[in-house]
Amino acid sequence: MSYPGYPPQSGGYPPQAGGYPPQAGGYPPQAGGYPPQAGGYPQQAGGYPPQAGGYPPAAGGYPPAQGGYPPAQGGYPPAQGGYPPAQGGFPPQAGGYPGPAGGFPPQAGGYPAQPGQGGYPSMPPAGGGWGAAPGGYGPPGGAPQGYPGGPAPGQPMPNYPGAPATGPSNPAYGGGVPFNPQAPAMPRGYRGSIKDFPGADPLKDVEVLRKAMKGFGTDENAIIELLGNRSNKQRVPLVAAYKTTYGKDLIRDLKSELTGDFEDLCVAMLKTPAHFDASELREAIKGAGTDEACLIEILSSRSNAEIQEINRIYKSEYGKTLEDSISGDTSGHFRRLLVSLCQGNRDERPNVDISLAKQDAQKLYAAGENKVGTDESQFNAILCARSKPHLRAVFQEYQQMSGKEIEKSICREMSGNLESGMVAVVKCIKNTPAYFAERLHKSMKGAGTKDRTLIRVMVSRSEVDMLDIRQEYLKAYGKSLYTHISADTSGDYKKLLLKLCGSND
């Protein structure tokens, strides 16, 4: 449907005979419409738009050849250089921006341009893209301007932002600060092999255990299925629930019904982690010999909070501090190493300062490889006080500086228990699952099995990183941990160990 007078039949906008609205009436009326014929806004002689032409002009583009915008009698800009001039684009010939040699756009093309008259404005000009010369937006005759260079009309637009032509490699994040590939990875979720059993009820569980041990003979399979499918926080309450229900001690009943390594494994699984660690440290210290590897294993792999809880329980259970027990059973620099570790005061901040890591690496090099003799105190101070992420960066810097791994330097500079202890600390900090995979392998290789070590690692790591230990074991020794346990143990003891292992890889 067309509206009367819009657009007019013979001219621009508004219609020649009376503008908009139509002559016969409408809005506004003829005598005083918008714009009025005899006056008003704008005036007839030079108003907006002029009477002789409209928008667009009858003979060409925008603006009209004879007047345009603004009016010829004093508008903006002056009559000698309107916007844009009749013979060119933008800017005006007499003084606009930029000069007449390369206005915007060139006369030959525009977007869109009226045929033969130029146009408003040409974008992009026919001669090039946005900012291209000649004819671009910018100083005439200059270098191409703009960001980024664009294609000619009809071509796909460039990406934003414009990429360098040859794409130099990006600098490292952080302005060239060395990247530490050994920084801790993002958490990957739960890595234990034992999980909470849904709907576990301590009262029902102790009933199962009581039936398994009551009467003639013992149902070991029932004990294995129950203990092997409960997490530590579900197993530990069974001791109190058993005594509440039956008035008997669960640990004592298990010891009376079971024997050997299977008994030790079941009892270990009913202790909290801190109680179990405290009892293992006590066993490692008391008696004729000292299990130095056990002391290092526990003290180098536990967090500050865990070590402090171990100290509390040790003092409560055995009447003396762990530090006093260690001091009375060891000597020399090895004693200092253990005393430092049992304080539970290691820095645990996750951030790594590469410059400080380099300084510590230089201190270690100066204390060992780069001097006659060895400054064991410097090794002790750095290995026992710095955070584990920081020490991983230190070990990397040390290897780059000296061309040797820190463990090999320690072996060259130290001996005996101190050497074993320092190397164990380094290995545990470098890669904890790989360290425990090595501990498990050593416990089973050879003629006999070190069952105490095997039980301790399997129980203590089953809810921490057993899945990672299994991966490291397979990578290091070419067969799965599950397979090695199956070949090296037997009976009910083997069945429960395999429950802790999880599955075969």
UniProtKB/TrEMBL annotation:
Q: Supply the alphabetized keyword list.
A: Annexin, Calcium, Calcium/phospholipid-binding, Repeat
User: Which PROSITE patterns does the annotation name?
Assistant: ANNEXIN_1, ANNEXIN_2
Q: Which GO terms describe its cellular component?
A: cytoplasm; nucleus; plasma membrane; vesicle membrane
Query: What are the GO BP annotations of this UniProt entry?
Result: cytokinetic process; phagocytosis
Q: Which SMART domains match?
A: ANX
Q: Residues annotated as region Disordered? A: 1-191
Which Gene Ontology terms cover its molecular function? calcium ion binding; calcium-dependent phospholipid binding; phosphatidylserine binding
Residue stretches of biased makeup (Gly residues): 126-149
Question: Which portions of the chain have biased composition (kind: Pro residues)?
Answer: 150-161
Superkingdom of origin: Eukaryota
Q: Where is the composition biased (Low complexity)?
A: 1-95, 104-115
Q: Does the keyword Repeat apply?
A: yes
Asked if the Swiss-Prot or TrEMBL record annotates the protein with the keyword Translocase, the reply is no
What information about domains appears in the record's comments? A pair of annexin repeats may form one binding site for calcium and phospholipid.
Family under the similarity heading:
Belongs to the annexin family.
Protein name, per record: Annexin
Origin organism of this chain? Answer: Austrofundulus limnaeus
